[in-house]
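seq:
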Amino acid sequence: MPVSARKSPTRAFLLALMLPGSGHAYSGRYRLALGFFVFTNPAALLFSFHRLADLFGDGPHNALVLAFLICAWLSQAIDAALLTRAFNRRSTADARRRERRASASSDSPPRSQR
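struct:
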């Protein structure tokens, strides 16, 4: 498999940490990236603008919302890295199958015509 076809799981993780959804886009999962981008980013922005100043002022529900957002943010970053690693494995396996087929077809004698 060409080196340029492999994608870095670390890069996908870091991209997803910077902007949720970007790690999935990097690994080629555009629908999933759009879902994370559309739902995670606005939720984090709304929470940060409206609740960050009085994080523990209104009770424990603010801390629970923040914990949920942090878990969602980290889990989507980990998911992006795992999907990128799976993409690399799948691409490597496909390349090996193509190589085996090509070598098998070149090694076999031509079929006689009936």
